C-alpha cells in the first residue's frame, strides 16, 4: 500500500508542469496597384477640377491610404478604433498608382507590417479607407 502511494506521489510530483506560451507574429499587407477612374475622393466629390457629364473629374487626386485592422464586423464602423492597429501612408501618387516591387518611397514600406503579441483571432478582415488630399 505504501509503495503504491509512494509511486503515485512521485508520478504526480514528477509530471511535467504546463508552461506559459507566448504568441507573436506579423500581419503583412502588400499594396500592388490602385486606380481612381473618376478622380473622386472618399466622399464621392472631385478632388480637384470639375465633373463632366459622365461623372469623370477633370483634376487629379493625391492618393494615400489608411489601413485599419479590427475584429470582424457585419457592418464596418469606420468611426470605431482600430483594435489591432492602423497605418496611414504618405501620398503615394495620383489617380493611378503602381506599387511594383522595385518602386521605393523613402517614407513608405511595402508591405505594410502590423506586428502583434497576442493569440491571433479566427477571422480578421482588413478595412481600407482611401484618402485624397
Description:
The model is unreliable at 6-13 (pLDDT under 50). The radius of gyration is 26 Å and the shape is elongated. The relative contact order is 0.28. With 133 residues, the chain is mainly beta. 10% of the residues lie in helices and 26% in strands.
Broad structural category: mainly beta
- The portion of residues forming beta strands comes to 25-35%
Helix content: under 10%
Mean pLDDT: 77
Quantity of strands, as a count? 7
Shape: elongated
Instruction: Output the helix-strand order.
Output: HEEEEEEE
Strand order of the largest sheet: 4-3-7
Alpha carbon gap, first and last residue: 83 Å
Radius of gyration, rounded?
26 Å
Biggest pleated sheet: 3 strands, antiparallel
Helix run count: 1
Amino acid at each position: 500500500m505504501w509503495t503504491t502511494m509512494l509511486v503515485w506521489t512521485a508520478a504526480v510530483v514528477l509530471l511535467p508542469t504546463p508552461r506559459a506560451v507566448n504568441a507573436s507574429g506579423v500581419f503583412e499587407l502588400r499594396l500592388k496597384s490602385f486606380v481612381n477612374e473618376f478622380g473622386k475622393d472618399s466622399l464621392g466629390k472631385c478632388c480637384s477640377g470639375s465633373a463632366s457629364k459622365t461623372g469623370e473629374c477633370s483634376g487629379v487626386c493625391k492618393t494615400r491610404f489608411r489601413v485599419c485592422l479590427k475584429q470582424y464586423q457585419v457592418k464596418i464602423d469606420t468611426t470605431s478604433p482600430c483594435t489591432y492597429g492602423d497605418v496611414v501612408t504618405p501620398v503615394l501618387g495620383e489617380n493611378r498608382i503602381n506599387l511594383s516591387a522595385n518602386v521605393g518611397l523613402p517614407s513608405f514600406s511595402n508591405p505594410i507590417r502590423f506586428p502583434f503579441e497576442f493569440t491571433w483571432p479566427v477571422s480578421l478582415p482588413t478595412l481600407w479607407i482611401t484618402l485624397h488630399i
